[in-house]
């Protein structure tokens, strides 16, 4: 097979894969998020199993804890979020008015220009009725809330079953591989993906929660209303490197302009918000995650754009762990190693394959015993 045929085959395969990812998004998104949840929470389940707790019960307790934390967060954030959404139209109006005041010198020039051209047109003024802006209609809210609850339920149930039986499924898959070499390579790949992606998600979640607490305190000291809401926004948006903190800073700026009389002070609030996220991104995250999980800004931006186009908002938030997993998979095959290099591949020490297989078999036996 000549080089041109190989390139053509790769292009056709890539296009087919992209089409499959796009059109099967409603099925793939919850499954992918559940897999990421499994990679993040598996270590907790394994530790419970080693303490003598049955595998199914360990998975159930883990999901109960997760749901309790999520429910508590929703209860704490519901009132501030509802308050902000209720006042958002008026806030946008105040922001527009302050921007209009800043542009007033330019409007003076525009008025002079209009006076010069007033003789050329004698059209009567039209009466325009402006309705109160509404960000989101109630029907849209109900529909999207129902869809979101259904998505969360599917993700939670799938994550539970993966935590309860995922290692057993992996162990069965290993047994059907024809050779020990293939089995060892599969164990190494699965272990590397679990260690890299699971470690990234666990550490970045803890870091972002800490960031949210710091931001909440800072916003409270600066006099921003609902400081807990801005801390939650910082936590959520920081899962999207580079782009997320900038977008969150823009939201804080709009809210601050609508809240404070001084435009300069409002800008200062947004700058403080951005500085906190910048310090975290430049010093805290690199020191915790290390070089092995470091991705360049170009790779991050392209991956966020790609997965955002494919899977919408969920794709934006899970783009980075997906790139980390793809990099590890590409690094295992000679034909795709150049792609892994472009994504920032780094050499990692291979795990003890025999020990990994024993762990999988032990956990599979626990799951089957349940």
Write a structural description:
Helix 2 crosses helix 3 (55-102) and helix 6 (180-221) packs across helix 13. This protein is globular. The protein contains 13 helices and no strands. It has one domain (27-102, 142-358). The model is unreliable at 347-353 (pLDDT under 50). Helices cover 81% and strands 0% of the residues. The chain is mainly α.
Radius of gyration (Å): 26 Å
What structural category arises from helix and sheet content? mainly alpha
Oligomer: single chain
| Structure summary, number of beta strands | 0
Span between termini: 51 Å
Outline the biggest β-sheet.
none
Discrete helix count: 13
List the uncertain runs: 347-353
**Strand residues, percent:** under 5%
Query: On the 0-100 scale, what is the average pLDDT?
Result: 81
Shape: globular
Please give the domain count.
1
- The residue fraction in helices comes out at over 70%
Give the helices and strands as they follow along the chain: HHHHHHHHHHHHH
InterPro entries: AI-2E-like
Organism: Roseiconus nitratireducens
Pfam family, one: AI-2E_transport
Subcellular location: Membrane
What keywords describe this structure?
370 residues; mainly alpha; 13 helices; globular
Secondary structure layout plus pairing:
Elements: H1 3-23, H2 25-50, H3 55-102, H4 104-117, H5 138-175, H6 180-221, H7 227-237, H8 243-259, H9 263-289, H10 297-317, H11 319-330, H12 337-342, H13 353-369
Helix pairs in contact: 2-3, 2-5, 2-6, 3-5, 3-8, 5-13, 6-7, 6-9, 6-11, 6-13, 7-8, 8-9
